[in-house]
Structure formats: C-alpha cells, structure tokens
Amino acid sequence: MVKMLISSLTLVVLSLSAVTAQNTPIVVSDYPTPNEIPPTNTPQVLEWLKEIGDLSGAPNIPLHTGNPPSCPNPPIKDECYWTCDGCAADDITACAAANTWGLTFDDGPSTATPTLLNFLKTEKLSATFFLIGSNVIQYPDTVKRELAEGHHLASHTWSHHALTTLTNEQIVAEMKWTEKAVLAATGLKLKYMRPPYGDINNRVRFVLKKMGYIPVDWTGDQFDTNDWKMPSITEAAVIATFTKSLDTYVAGNKTQGFYCLEHDLNNNTVSAAQKLIPLGLARKINIANVAVCQSDATPYQAGGTAPMPAVSGLTPSPSAPAGAKATGSTSGNVSQPTIAGKSSGAESTAVSKGLFSAVAALAVIGAIFA
Ligand SMILES: [Zn+2]
Fold first, then answer.
1. What is the pLDDT of residues 148-185, one digit of tens each?
2. Domain NodB homology: where (predicted)?
3. For domain 4-15+80-369, which architecture applies?
C-alpha cells in the first residue's frame, strides 16, 4: 500500500487523549430524563443558576414555538436569528484554516458511532463530536473512546430541543447537564457547542456566553450534507449534492475552510460519512476538527489542552486567533452558491454569509490514505 501525503503534511493526530482526565462513574438515575428538557427547579440546576449569576441582561426576545420553530413573521428586530435571517453574530461559521474541511458529527454517541470511529482511525482523521447529553449517559464508553482516539468533544445540548424555544433557565439546564455528563465520562469541561437545528439568536447567545460556550454553526446550506434526511432521500443523492458543493469550494479561492453538517446518528449517516470523506481527500482538502480549525490549543474550559502541531503550507495569521469568528461580511469572497431557505428535520439549514477576511491558522491534520 502506497501512502500519499496530502498537503505535504506530516501525519498529526491531536493528542487530546493526553489530557489528565478524571473519570467518575455515570449513574443514570442521577441525571434528568433522557431526551426531555430538564426541570429548572432542582437543587442542582438552582446551584448552577446561582453560579452563573444574573441573566436579566439577556435580550428580551419572545420564545419561539415548535421544534424546530418557524421563522417569526414579521421578523423580530435585532434578534439575529441564524436559521431565519443568516445572522451569525459572533458564532463560528467557518473553519479558520485555508482549504480545510472542519469535520463535525452531531447527535451522538449512538450505536453507529463505533463504526465511524473505526473508519476515522483507519483514515487517521480527527473530528469534533457535538454530543447529546442524553446519549452521553447511555454510551459513556464511546465518548471515552472518542477522546482516546484523538477526537475533540463538544456539546449539542441535553435533549436536542430548539434553544430559541426554551427559557434562559432551561438553556442553562440543557447545557450544564450535558457538561456534567461529559465531565464525568472524561474529566473535560466542554467549551464549544452547536445549537440543535442551528437554532440560535441573540438571547440564546447571551446565555451560552454566560456559561463560557462558543457556538459553532456550519458554513451555509451547501455544507449541510443532508445525511439526516436519509432514508427519505437516497445516499446517492446525498453524495451527488455534496460532491457539487465540494467542487464549487475547490474552484474558489479556499482562503478559509468550511464546517459541514454530518451526523453519527444512525447506520445511514455513518455509511454516508465513509463515502463523503474520501471525496474531500481526493480533492486534497485538509480535514481537521474544530480545535485545529480555530487554532485553539485549549479547546475545553477545563481539564485538557490540545497540542497544536506546526503545519507547513499554511501561514499562521495573528488576525485569526483561537475562537476566530465570522463577521457576517462577505469579504472572503469564497465562490460558493448561496442557497436561501430553511429545512426542517434533524437539523434545519441556514444561510451563513459569514466569511473570514484573513487566512487563518496553522494546524491541520495531515491525511494519509492508501
Ligand atoms: Zn442535531
């Protein structure tokens, strides 16, 4: 087997497993009912609310209804509602490294996750897993394996409800119970999160920021793989559509990377992932997790660091520090189709216009394939 080096990078796998994790056994009965919005009047949540402090400064935006909700009509002034108006505020919407696919998987862990981990191990790739807390307490060993195999962990809430429909206190409960579960499984306090359905507005952002969380959306509709629509749509359709997105990206200036939406939700989505990733590798697109994309050597609020490998071929940019964010401008001018509209399903899609003006970052995982 001849091994090819992509982008003349030495193979680097993030040593996230090098963290000094302190595991404690997870007792399921200590946690809220899985897949339900946790109550906010329990001693534990009240303690968290006290720690977090005053939330009264949150923008006074009415709660939406539905899961995911419909877009308000008329729009609410200054809401900055990503799924409806494409407004991302300071959310991260694109991988800050040039020519790089920010590889992320949402909704796990599930029984399909180990198959995906086997594949990523073979391909020597590292992803960010946006974990659902309810699933973490069911499959803590899978989360431990993700960490041990060099992946980056992040939050996707406790019950996968649309956050703009929840009260500030419910958002706290959703995030903190997930945080507690992952902390128990791995010793790591999560720092990055992806809102379910991409459903986020300025009120949600305010509450997330109070807890130290950085939202990571995805780079527009064209990077929603639509894997979550299977089996309503075929795998062939998923592959065909995403191939076009990749080709459009490759034809552009590639000064910044992208985040796509994929899921380790079930066998269908994991099967699709194993066919989509080689499409990126074949186009010599680097593949990296969020920590690497954002050059964040401390991708957890506590408990661990991610050593950042030096990478040739990319110029570190002081203007794109860790947590680099989209600006909502289009100064990056990546030639990608902008598809308006909104879907409903496992994740709604959104138009993300935010593009970085600066070439960012450094570390990229070198992908080797046979
Ligand atoms: Zn999701």
1. 999 999 999 999 999 999 999 999 999 999 999 999 99
2. 99-290
3. Alpha-Beta Barrel (3.20)
